[in-house]
Amino acid sequence: MPVISTFFGIIIRMFYQEHRPPHFHAEYQGQQATFDFDGELLVGTLQSGVARRLIRDWAVQHRAQLEANWANMEAGLALERIEPLE
Fold it and tell me: How far is CA 77 from CA 15, 48, 71, in A?
């Protein structure tokens, strides 16, 4: 499962051969959750409200890159790293 970004202890991944709707996976302090490209929580739990806010901010800033990676994933192409939140 390719890591596409890391920031503030948060690991962002996107799997190959995923199902719709487009989404990414985030891990923080052993907790895992799935988010849409607007940064809204779809599945899982992240207890930290700060981590959820950071993930949402990152997703909004990098929506175009997330969509490009999703298209790459569907085409069987390599995923690109995405800049971390600063």
Answer: 12, 33, 8
